[in-house]
Amino acid sequence: MSYFAAALNLTTFMEIPAPAKAVVQATTLYFGNTPGMWLTAGTIALGLLFLAYFVRVILAARIKIIAARTTTRLDDLLVTLIEDLRLPLLAVLAIVIATRFLTLADSIEKALQVAAVIAIALQLILSSGHIIDFSLGQLLSKSQGASGKPDETLANSMGVLRFLGMVVVAAVVLIFALDNVGVAVTPLLTGLGIGGIAIALAVQNVLSDLFASLAILLDKPFVVGDSIQVGQQSGTVERIGVKTTRVRAVNGEQLVFANNDLLKGVLQNFKRMEERRVAFTLGLSYRTPPGSIRSAPNLIAAVISAQANVRFDRCHIKTLGEWAIIAEVVYFVTTPDHSEHVRVQHEVNLALLEQLPAAGIAFAFPTQITVDGGPV
Q1: Where is 79: in which H helix or E strand?
Q2: Strands (E), the chain
Q3: Of the candidates 175, 207, 169, 199, which has an alpha carbon nearest to the alpha carbon of residue 189?
Q4: Does domain 205-272 have CATH number 3.20.80.10?
Q5: How far apart are CA 258 and CA 248, in angstroms?
Q6: Domain ranges in the chain?
Q7: How does pLDDT run across 285-312, given as a tens digit for each residue?
Q8: How far apart are the C-alpha atoms of 256 and 263, rounded to whole Å?
Q9: How far out from the chain centre does Cα 87 lie?
Q10: pLDDT higher for 326 or 1?
Q11: Of 280, 290, 287, 294, the residue nearest 352 (C-alpha)
């Protein structure tokens, strides 16, 4: 019944006979609904609010007790989601559901529908944040190494991944919310697509670095703490960000690389070396007896093999040079540690200087014989 009809009933009230007065009062409308209808709607709204409070407080407490006895984290996530239900948003939903039992103007029903969609969208976004945090936490826990510590690179990238996840969730929720309130989504998406292309062209360098950071995170050509070399620059990775990666150089300064630049060329990762190869040549004097030259590779092999953390590979007389017999020596330091690599080289060189001359094997050096003041 319209507001005009209700007003007509009130203006003609005095003309109704007295016995029928009570009947008219019982059927009086308030904003198009009887008092009984308003009472029913209010009761439903209060009941729904009580149910929401029961689920949010009492049921969550019971589930939390059960979750404390289990090892899985899914029940902990369930408790978090229930406890994060926002009572103001639930109150909006309870009121909207209760008004379904009332006769309201189209404009009011439309406003209530919009309010319900906004409340659901906000609650979905808030709950999605906890789900994303839980998923990232599980991913981080699975990245733990032998030391029990999580992957430092992944840990530093949690903020980036969470931001991207929330952006995707918010975009999807916004599209569904607009669709439910009657907004034509297809033309909007078309416009956003065209605008997105323009924005992407304007910030393509930033986007390329962003996707490069994701590639580094997923493919892991290096992680935080690795020693890398790019071109002529080398150092230890300190931080992998959204746009740049920061490396502490050997000399102490900080190097900042764009993520996309790191993936364009050849990158050397020294941290992942299993062993270090050492190759060098020795010049032996032609004055050394041939028998001593023949025994030189075995002596050099014994000198090198006596060192710790060393795997001898080979030693050969490579060539007969103009002023020396050239022996080529190759061995491996069985640890990637640079300090140990340098120490082994130091000890090997000193041992060769001591033991080769003691065995009658002389080192060669460039010489020139002159006769009557001129070279021969």
Answers
A1: helix 74-83
A2: 227-230, 233-240, 244-249, 254-258, 267-269, 276-284, 310-320, 325-333, 370-371, 374-375
A3: 175
A4: no
A5: 15
A6: 3-191, 205-272, 276-358
A7: 999 998 999 999 999 999 999 999 899 9
A8: 14
A9: 33
A10: 326
A11: 280
